[in-house]
Design goal:
single chain; 385 residues; alpha+beta; Beta-Lactamase; five-stranded antiparallel β-sheet; 7 helices; 74% helix; 10% strand; rod-shaped
C-alpha cells in the first residue's frame, strides 16, 4: 500500500511538472504572438509615415514648380522691357540723323547768305568807285546804295537769326546726344543684367533657333551636361539627349516651332560621362519684331533626378513592405494554427491524466482522511479544482 501511494505521488509530481512546462510553453507562444502583432502594428505606422513624407514631397514639388513659373514670367517681362528700350533708342537715333541733316542744310543756307553779303560788299565798293564818274547818276546811286544798305541790314539780321538758330540747334543736338548716351548706357546696363540673369540663373536655360541649333547655353546647363557653351553653340539639340530617347525628345522640341509651348514636360539630358539627368522643361517662343512668327525658342529646365530616384526607392520600399507584411501575416496565421492545434492536443491529451488524478485524490480523501491533517486536505481540494 505504501509503495502504491509513493508511486501515485511520483506520478502526481511528474504530471504537475508536465503541466507547468506546458503552461510555460503556452505563455511563451502567447508572448511571441503579442510581439508579432506589435511588430505588424509598427510596420503599419511606418507605412503611414512614409505616405505622409511622400505627400510633403509632392507639396514641395508643387511649390518649386510655382517658383519656376514666376522666374519665367520675370524673364519674359525683362525681355519685353529690353525690346521697348531698343525701339525707343532707334527712334532717338532716327531723330538725331534728321537733326544732323537739318543742320547741314542750314549751314549751306548760311554759306549762301554769306556769299551774297560778300557780293553786296563788292557791288558797294564798285558803286563808290563809279561815284566820281557818274555825278549825274549820284541821286540814283544814292538811292540804290540806300536800298542796298537796307538789303544788307536785312541780310545781316537774317544772318544773326540764322546764327542763333544754328546755336539753338547745336544745343538741341548736344542734348539729344547726351540723352542718347544715357539711353545707350541704360540699355547696356539692362543687357548686362539680363546677360548675368541668363548666365548665372540657378535653373538651366537654353535657346535654339528654328533649325534646332543651340544659340545660348547658361552655366547651369553646363553643369547638367558637362559641356561648355562654346562647345555646343551652333550644334543640334540632339547631342543633349540619350540615344534611346533622342527621337521622342526631338519630337517634343519640334512641336515648339508651330507656336506651341512646353509646360512641365519631362525630358532626359545626357551628361558627357554618359550619366542621365531628368529635367522638367518649360519653354516660350521668341517672336520676330513684327510678332508674326517665331525666330527662336527659350527653355528652362528643373532637375528632378533626385526626386525620381526617391520616388523609385519609395515604390520599392512599399513593395518590400507589402511583401514583408504578407509574409509576417502568413507566419502569424501559421503560428495561430499551430497554437490552436497545440492547445487542442494538450487539452485532449490531459483529460485522461486529469481524470485519473481526480480519481486518485478522491480515493485518497475517502480512504486516508484520518491520516491527513488540515493542510493536506486543503492541498487535495486545490488539486481537484
Amino acid at each position: 500500500m505504501g509503495k502504491r501511494k509513493k508511486s501515485d505521488e511520483d506520478e502526481l509530481i511528474i504530471v504537475r511538472k508536465e503541466l507547468a512546462f506546458q503552461k510555460e510553453e503556452k505563455e511563451k507562444l502567447i508572448a511571441e504572438l503579442i510581439i508579432a502583432r506589435k511588430e505588424l502594428t509598427f510596420q503599419k505606422e511606418e507605412k503611414g509615415r512614409r505616405a505622409a513624407e511622400l505627400g510633403i514631397a509632392n507639396i514641395e514639388l508643387a511649390f518649386q514648380d510655382e517658383e519656376k513659373g514666376k522666374r519665367a514670367d520675370e524673364l519674359i517681362i525683362a525681355n519685353k522691357k529690353l525690346a521697348f528700350q531698343n525701339t525707343e533708342k532707334e527712334k532717338l537715333a532716327d531723330e538725331l540723323i534728321i537733326a544732323s541733316k537739318e543742320l547741314v542744310f542750314q549751314n549751306g543756307e548760311k554759306e549762301q547768305r554769306a556769299a551774297e553779303l560778300i557780293i553786296a560788299d563788292k557791288e558797294l565798293i564798285f558803286q563808290l568807285g563809279e561815284k566820281g564818274k557818274r555825278a549825274d547818276e549820284l541821286v540814283i546811286a544814292d538811292k540804290e546804295r540806300s536800298f542796298q544798305n537796307k538789303e544788307k541790314g536785312k541780310r545781316a539780321d537774317e544772318l544773326i537769326i540764322a546764327n542763333k538758330e544754328l546755336v539753338f540747334q547745336n544745343e538741341e543736338k548736344e542734348k539729344r546726344a547726351a540723352e542718347l548716351i544715357i539711353i545707350n548706357e541704360e540699355g547696356r546696363k539692362t543687357n548686362d543684367y539680363l546677360e548675368n540673369l541668363f548666365n548665372y540663373a540657378n535653373a538651366p536655360i537654353i535657346v535654339w533657333d528654328t533649325q534646332y541649333k543651340i544659340t545660348r547655353f547658361n552655366k547651369a546647363f553646363e553643369a547638367i551636361t558637362g559641356r561648355m557653351e562654346e562647345d555646343v553653340i551652333g550644334k543640334s539639340l540632339e547631342i543633349l539627349f540619350p540615344l534611346i530617347d533622342r527621337e521622342t525628345s526631338m519630337k517634343l522640341i519640334r512641336n515648339t516651332h508651330d507656336g506651341n509651348r512646353m509646360e512641365v514636360v519631362e525630358i532626359k539630358i545626357l551628361h558627357i560621362d554618359n550619366s542621365v539627368r531628368t529635367l522638367l522643361w518649360n519653354s516660350a517662343n521668341i517672336l520676330s519684331p513684327d510678332g508674326m512668327f517665331p525666330i527662336a525658342t527659350i527653355a528652362q529646365g528643373y532637375d528632378i533626378t533626385v526626386r525620381k530616384f526617391a520616388e523609385e526607392e519609395i515604390r520599392q520600399l512599399n513593395v518590400t513592405l507589402e511583401e514583408k507584411v504578407m509574409e509576417r501575416t502568413m507566419q502569424l496565421e501559421n503560428a495561430n494554427k499551430e497554437l490552436e492545434a497545440f492547445s487542442y492536443s494538450i487539452s485532449h491529451d490531459l483529460r485522461a491524466p486529469l481524470r485519473h488524478i481526480g480519481g486518485f485524490i478522491d480515493l485518497l480523501i475517502k480512504n486516508n482522511t484520518s491520516q491527513l491533517d488540515e493542510t493536506g486536505l486543503t492541498h487535495f481540494a486545490a488539486i481537484r479544482l
